[in-house]
Amino acid sequence: MLGRLGFVASVLSENLTTSRTCRLSNATPLRLRELTAENLATLDQVLTFLDRHEIGLYRISSNIIPFASHPINTVRWWKDFASDLRHLGARIRRLGVRASMHPGQYTVLNSPSPAIVASAVAELVYQARLLDALDTDRSSKIVIHVGGLYGGTEADAIGRFIERARKLPKNVLERLVIENDDRLFDADEVLIVHRELGIPVVFDWLHHQANPCARPVADVLRDVFATWTAADGRPKIHMSSQAKGGPPGAHADDVAASDVLAFLRVAPEARFDCMLEAKEKDRALLRLRKALRRRGVVETRA
Fold this sequence. Notes:
The protein is of the alpha/beta class. It has helices spanning 29-52, 77-80, 82-95, 114-133, 154-166, 170-173, 187-197, 205-210, 217-225, 257-266, 281-294, and strands at residues 2-8, 57-59, 98-101, 141-144, 176-179, 201-204, 236-239, 272-276.
């Protein structure tokens, strides 16, 4: 059963971005404070948009605190902006919004490079600190992929990820979820990570189309949904449609209602939240909502 629909970061229909940044060479403490203040103020406007349109799922931009995990940023933003963060967190809770974050492609825990791993850990620590500063509960997650093969086997790559993840701070690991990808690690393979670490699995529908499991998808989804505990919140999936003419796994501007309906036909009888990964972001969500309602499918925030 369809729970909350959500979208990623920017509100295109109102030209709201929470990803203001600058060149590394211009990243002075003063400039970083200015940009952080602007991004947090815009997040307040985004929450007003979510309230107006009854949207209960939202992914916060990784760049809301510019260069947060880079040594250049020496601002103690979680203290300097504590009042703003408390205000935003209170609104998030009052509106019943489930927040999440998703580090970019360079956050790779299973890399053979110690420098890349250290950078990945720093990014995860930052994102957990932000969600903690907003006082969100454990249902607000940080989504990550296994990473690359680096000349080894899938088992080697998964083993490196598990080894590095076990060393993460407790507050980071409690928020971590693992996602199947469109090329290397399918949903059954990321279930191995769950069994070792106990972290939930986010199922990505489009990635599964590009990189399917050997087992029937209904069986896989039953196991995936079971990875979510009451503390983790209801199961969460990523939904997108294939971009015409693009490589497998490329996101289209909108999400086709037919993709959601196809997922519902194989999904377990349990309510789940659905993050849309579409280039048209909020506009894609509002169009999809209308299309689904015409077909008798209505999402529920509760």
